[in-house]
Design a protein that fits this description.
This protein has about 400 residues and is of the alpha/beta class. The chain folds into two domains: about 160 residues, HUPs (Rossmann fold, 3-Layer(aba) Sandwich); about 130 residues, Argininosuccinate synthetase, chain A, domain 2. Helices cover about 40% and strands about 20% of the residues. Helix 3 crosses helix 7, helix 4 crosses helix 5 and helix 7 packs across helix 8. The longest helix has 20 residues. It is elongated. About 35% of the residues are buried.
Length: about 400
């Protein structure tokens, strides 16, 4: 249903196939002004072509905003403090970008007097939920246009035909075909579609853009030291870096060693399973390193409680509830646990593997004088007998009561 009362729309615009077609479709269908917004969140592409394409298509208000530091500082790092992994493996690279993009869309709508926002997410995917939950959380009365749920352009083939008909230039891959459906930012890049829709088919090696093949990675391991303060990484090999610069540096190092490839069949929020292939080199290094520094700075009870909360936190991010009260409540608890998570982790990178091989902290709870196998003067081993007997009491009583 087309709402003809809409006066101005802010479109989340990448300049790719979907959003370029959507831009023209919005102009023709709604007959109103469309403002384009392109977020630079480290996708590694030149964004000027998006501006030029929008200008060519008659857009007068074009926003291209560098959000890389905000993305890593205010979204990626808080999520990493939770050690968040969706279904135990996915580092949520697409999920965590959507609330930032949607937040900025709402800000632009207010700046330009727009009464509607639009996105290019399909009616099958998670992103439609992530965008729209954020829209409504921040601007309850905003109007939302989701073309994939209303138009009759129901496949990529039809989109390409539409683009050709309207003389919209579209990038092609080396074979002259439309490329994989990708999503890229400073944390990751994902690939979907084409041959990947068959979960039995191995991805082509030439698809990957951020990591070399393990077989082509260096034959010599590389060591990297990451310094943390209050749970967040602040330096690599002794050099202080901004959040975005630090993640970019680890992407470079990790990509060289084939770190962070993931081939995953995941459960979407809407109910279906989907297959995606991901490259998250720097994020994978950080995720493992964070576990390393927490292992010596977090109390057992806090660490285990964090592990219990993590799946719920990860699910909230994946489903799109970043701006929900429950995510903010969990974040407050997680951030409180990070007060003493400070120190340095040494990582060893080699042909697709990233391992912690050293960790140290001025706040360390690890006491060598307690754990040593040599003689010590701080621990009475006889105390363990009473500890065991008290813990065994309910087991003994259960057995006696059932005999």
């Amino acid at each position: 249903m087309v709402d003809k009362s809409i006066k101005k729309i802010v479109l989340a615009y990448s300049g790719g196939l979907d959003t370029s077609v959507i831009l023209r479709w919005l102009q023709e269908t709604y007959g109103c002004e469309v403002v384009t917004f392109t977020a630079d969140i480290g996708q590694g592409e030149e964004l000027e072509p998006a501006r030029q394409k929008a200008q060519m298509m008659g857009v007068k208000q074009i926003y291209i905003d560098d959000l890389r530091e905000e993305f890593v500082r205010d979204f990626v790092f808080p999520m990493f403090r939770a050690n968040a992994l969706y279904e135990g493996t996915y580092l949520l690279g697409s999920s965590i970008a959507r609330p930032l993009i949607a937040k900025r869309q709402i800000e632009i709508a207010r700046e330009t007097g727009a009464d509607a926002v639009a996105h290019g997410a399909t009616g099958k995917g998670n992103d439609q939920v992530r965008f729209e939950l954020t829209y409504y959380a921040l601007q309850p009365d905003i109007k939302v246009v989701a073309p994939w749920r209303t138009w009759d352009l129901n496949s990529r083939t039809v989109l390409l035909d539409y683009a050709d008909k309207h003389q919209i230039p579209i990038a092609r891959d080396k074979r002259g075909e439309a490329p994989y459906s990708t999503d890229a930012n400073l944390l990751h890049i994902s690939y979907e579609g084409k041959a990947l829709e068959d979960p039995w088919v191995e991805p082509d090696e030439d698809m990957f853009t951020r990591t070399v093949a393990p077989e082509k990675a260096p034959d010599k391991a590389e060591y990297v030291e990451i310094e943390f303060e209050r749970g967040d990484p602040v330096a690599v090999d002794g050099k202080k870096l901004s959040p975005a610069s630090l993640l970019a540096k680890l992407n470079e190092i990790g990509g060289k060693h084939s770190i962070g490839r993931l081939d995953l069949v995941e459960n979407r929020f809407v109910g279906m399973k989907s297959r995606g292939v991901y490259e998250t080199p720097g994020g994978t290094i950080l995720s493992i390193a964070r576990r390393g520094i927490e292992s010596i700075t977090l109390d057992r009870g806090a660490a285990h409680l964090k592990d219990e909360l993590m799946p719920r936190y990860a699910e909230l991010v994946y489903f799109g509830f970043w701006f929900s009260p429950e995510r903010e409540m969990l974040q407050a608890a997680i951030d409180a646990s990070q007060k003493f998570v400070t120190g340095t982790v040494r990582m060893k990178l080699f042909k697709g593997q990233a391992r912690v091989v050293g960790r140290k902290s001025p706040r360390s709870l690890y006491r060598q004088d307690y754990v040593t196998f040599e003689a010590d003067e701080v621990y009475n081993q006889q105390d363990a007998e009473g500890f065991i007997k008290l813990n065994a009491l309910r087991l003994r009583l259960a057995k006696l009561g059932r005999s």
